[in-house]
Amino acid sequence: MLYLAEQKYHQYDVYTSLSDEHCVDQMRFLLLILHFLFSFQLSKVYGNVFTVYMGMKPTVVMYGYEAVKEALVDLGEEFSGRNLSPINKKVNKGFGVIFSNGKRWKEIRRFSLMTLRNFGMGKRSIEDRVQEEARCLVEELRKTNGSPCDPTFILGAAPCNVICSVIFQNRFDYRDQTFLNLMGKFNENFKILNSPWVQFCNCFPILFDYFPGSHRKAVKNIFYVKNYITEQIKEHQKSLDINNPRDFIDCFLIKMEQEKCNQQSEFTIENLLTTVSDVFMAGTETTSTTLRYGLLLLMKHPEVIAKVQEEIERVIGRHRSPCMQDRSRMPYTDATVHEIQRYINLIPNNVPHTTICNLKFRNYLIPKGTDVLTSLSSVLHDDKEFPNPDRFDPGHFLDASGNFRKSDYFMPFSTGKRVCVGEALARMELFLFLTAILQNFTPKPLVNPNNVDENPFSSGIVRVPPLYRVSFIPV
């Protein structure tokens, strides 16, 4: 029951027709349609604004830089809504920062941005915490002694620990059982929520309540994490010093105290719990996946590794840790990090938006509450902005003189009012982690670099790299 329909819907065109009557596996058919939907050929035939039905629900698609920018930047307020998926309705109920709306979203987002970007909690800045974790990451990799290993856990533990440090004040030892349990829940849910079955349930919500399946396990995992966060909040309440905030939770609790007389305040325990959960889970897996995909691409392109290591040697040397001030003097390394994000196209179709009012968009009338998908892949792989976009080439972000070149088309974190809250932190982590790794090691594949498989293991909501083994050879 997933199709594109040729009919009129509230004065905006909905095109062509596809039937799934003969599809044996409707979940895989959903993925097939999504991949086909955002292809270059389809946009050429049906234009840069078109509508598909997912289940019985119409979803407007924006394809290409101009359409995406017009929707998310020029009309950012009108397209700033979120609809809740069945799982989000069950566990988040409209609280938090990712799937909230209206006044709640604006206030929680403003607070989260200020805290994550501008505020050095206690005596340690966020950069200090990322640098500490980069050193711990290097030591863990050194313990492999150059033997082949699967880097999935180590590259997931590092960004998770940064989030733990920012939210809970302290990082974990990589072998701490509580930490291992949390990582296990994150990894399991990342696979479940990116599976064809859950995407199919999102199209037909009735399946969520009445059918067994992995979505039930995902809900249990989320509540496990939330129970841990609840205990952390209780401990913070007992030891809170309003004059010395230690982390994100302390900052939120202080804000709650400041607004305790405001009956309409959005700074409540429910919003604290869900916001911390949002930052915790979203900030762990996306950065981890980018790091894993990035190393895979670098192994396939050893000439890029050599150029980055030459720049590291020239600017940083071997005896001090990388810092963010180094980035402005390392254009090739900066370009490589950007090219990894552009090339892997982590979240091809963005997190869905929803219109908050009736509006006219390019002569189409789009009703309030309509779901909107903005194709980030059509922007990140635009062949006019990035020649040969399907080729991994840091030169996409360098000018003729070898200086770093910014691009408005670089939007892996989305753009506009709903741009990722943790963008600044994620950029910092990617630069410092990758630079620290290449400062100390040369990652070597177990096969000829030409034979390294970079095709995603999964390409649903998020593109997941294949599992691989790598040897970290000390420099």
TrEMBL record:
A family per Pfam: p450
Alphabetical keyword list: Endoplasmic reticulum, Heme, Iron, Membrane, Metal-binding, Microsome, Monooxygenase, Oxidoreductase
Gene3D superfamilies per record: Cytochrome P450
Chain positions recorded as heme binding sites: C420
Cofactor: heme
Uppermost EC category: oxidoreductase
InterPro entries on file: Cyt_P450 (IPR001128), Cyt_P450_CS (IPR017972), Cyt_P450_E_grp-I (IPR002401), Cyt_P450_sf (IPR036396), Cytochrome_P450_fam2 (IPR050182)
Compartments reported by the entry: Endoplasmic reticulum membrane; Microsome membrane
Catalytic reactions on record: an organic molecule + reduced [NADPH--hemoprotein reductase] + O2 = an alcohol + oxidized [NADPH--hemoprotein reductase] + H2O + H(+)
One Gene Ontology molecular-function label: heme binding
GO cellular component: endoplasmic reticulum membrane
The protein's Enzyme Commission number: 1.14.14.1
Main location: endoplasmic reticulum
GO biological process, one term: organic acid metabolic process
Family stated for the protein in its record: Belongs to the cytochrome P450 family.
The protein, known as: unspecific monooxygenase
Species in which this protein is naturally found: Oryctolagus cuniculus
Lineage, top ranks: Eukaryota, Metazoa, Chordata, Craniata, Vertebrata
Gene: CYP2C2
